[in-house]
Amino acid sequence: MSLNTPPEGVETATAEAPHVSTALASCAEELGVDAASLHWTLDKSHFRSEQGLVLAQDTVRIIAWKRDEKELAACNAGKEWLAEVIAGMDLTGTVTAKMTSSDKVVLGVDVDNAARFIGRKGSTLQGVSDLLAETMGEQFPGINFHISVADKRSDNDGERRGRGRDRDDRGRGRGR
Questions:
Q1: Rounded to whole angstroms, what are the CA distances from 78 to 93, 96, 172?
Q2: Is the dihedral of CA 153, 75, 145, 19 positive or negative?
Q3: Which of 11, 56, 71, 76 is 20 to 30 A distant from 107 in Cα terms?
Q4: Rounded distance, CA 167 to CA 105, Å?
Q5: Which of 40, 36, 15, 42 lies closest to 27, judged by CA?
């Protein structure tokens, strides 16, 4: 099953609005759930004429449906577990959870001290990822959990560390 098409037999809602978030809120209200517990896809036919020509539209139309209960449980459990770890590390931040495929949960982390959460050469992040996989693997077999940490470095920080515009994609100076 693709996350971009509703499974057969699932109740769907369709909404048209100036923004996706507004359309999602409308679908969530119609389905009686929170917007975070919905899958959705853009209705591309909204942007085509009967002849198949592209139409300019000021609105978007989406089709939304409820997430599977197992997906919601995996997202919520991973989010809660990681929030406890962050609090235990004496860091302040937020965790978001998103199911990106039928077997992968991405946990987005935005903490006040990302370098401390990541650790030297990623060692702390790798340890937390391993513990997360082991802990959640028992509860949700077949679902992979991935941690994505927000990068708040500014362009000036990157240049100070030698990652500025005068470097190629492998970190070498372009003059070499």
A1: 15, 9, 38
A2: negative
A3: 11
A4: 34
A5: 15
At CA 75, angle to CA 69 and CA 78, rounded to 5?
135
Count of other CB atoms within 10 angstroms of residue 125: 16
pLDDT of residue 78: 93
pTM as predicted:
0.61
Angstrom distance (rounded) from CA 62 to CA 163 = 40
pLDDT of residue 174: 53
* Euclidean distance between CA atoms 172 and 176, whole angstroms: 8
- CA dist 44 to 47, 121, 132, 138, Å? 6, 43, 37, 39
In the DSSP assignment, the letter for residue 37 is: G
Which positions ≥6 away from 154 have C-beta within 8 Å?
Answer: none
Q: Give me the phi and psi of 91, to 5 degrees please.
A: -110, 160
* pLDDT beyond 60 at 176: no
Measure the CA angle with vertex 140, ends 93 and 86; round to 5°: 15
